[in-house]
User: Fold Transaldolase from Micractinium conductrix.
Amino acid sequence: MQASISQRVSITWPPSSRPVSARRQVPVRAYLSSKKGEVAPPTIQAANQLESLRHMSKVVADTGEIKAIKEYMPVDCTTNPSLVLKAMQDPEYVRFLDDAVYQERRRGNPEGIRPYSFIADQLAVNIGTELLSIVPGRVSTEVDAHLSHDTLATVDKALHLVDLYVQRGIDPDRLYIKIASTWEGIRACEVLQQEGIDCNMTLLFSFAQAAACADAGAALISPFVGRILDWHKKANPDVVYTAENDPGVESVKRIYKYYKAYNYNTIVMAASFRNADEIRALAGCDNITIAPPLLKELEASKAPLPYQLWPTMGGCEDEHHRMDFHGLELFDKLHGEDLMAVEKLKEGIDNFAADQLKLEEMIGAALKKANGA
Assistant:
C-alpha cells in the first residue's frame, strides 16, 4: 500500500542552508535600470472589463459557492473558513458534510480538545474537490488559523490536507495550501515548498511579510487590499480615499515592482477588495482573486481597461532585503514598525480562527440532530 505524503516526507528543521532558489542575485546596476521601465502594453479590446482583465491577469474566484464559480468560470478559486462557513448555509452543501462525517468516522481520528476539527478538514477538501471539477486550475485550501504561530503543526496540517486530496484522486499540483504570513507560517511554507507543495501565503499586509515569503520560495502571496484600506479609513476618517491614493493598492504595487526588479518567481495575487476601482487600479497584477459581486460589476462595464501593472514597468524604489531563515531580526523590525500590518494580521488570524470554531460548532450541531440528541 502506497504511503501517504505525510509519511513519505522527511522534515528537516531548520531547513538546509542553500542559495535562495526563488530569485537570482541582481547587481545594483540592474536595480537602477529597472527603475526606468518600459511603456505599458496596449489596452485590450474586449466585450467588457472582466474579459479585458482575463487577458491581463489570471482571474480567480474568491468564493466557495459552486453556482458562482459555474457562472463566472475562473481559472482558479480560493476558499477559507469564512467562505466555507458561508457556503454551508446552502442546503446543496449538506452532502459534503455527510461525506466528511462518514470519512472521519471510518478513519477513527482521535477526538481531542476540538473533536470536529478533522471533520472540518475533510469538509474543506470535499468542497475543494468539487470546485476542482469545475475550474481548470487550482484551489486554495487553508490551514487552521489556530496553528498560525506553530511551524511544525502547520506543516503537519498541510500534509494532512494534501493527503486528503490525494485520497480523492487530486494531484497536489492542483492545490495551494493557504498559510497565514506569520514568521512561523513563512518558515512552514519554506519546508513545504522544498517538498514540492505550493503555498498561498495569506493575511499579508506588510512589505516585510512579502519580502520574507519570496525568500522562503512561496509559490504565491495574497496581499489584502481592502483590509489595508479599512484600517487607514478608520485611522484617518477625514481622508477621502480613491483608487489613486488607496494604501492597499499602493502596497500591492510596491510588492509587485519589488518582485519583478529582483526576479522573484512568487506570484502576486491581489485579494480582499472593497470596490471595483481597486481591481481596475491593479489590472495586470499576476493574479487577482475577486468575489462574485465585483466579478458581476466588472462584467457589466464596457469601458476600456488599461494596464496598471506589467512585468517590465520598473519603478522599484526599494533596496533588496535578505529576509530568509536568518532574517528574523530584520523581519521583526520592519513588520513591527507597520502598526496597520501588526493589527490586521492579528485580527485576521483571530477572525479566521473564530469562523473555524463556528464551522466546527455547526458540524457538532448537525451530528447531534442526526443522532436525535
Remarks:
- The first helix runs from residue 5 to 8.
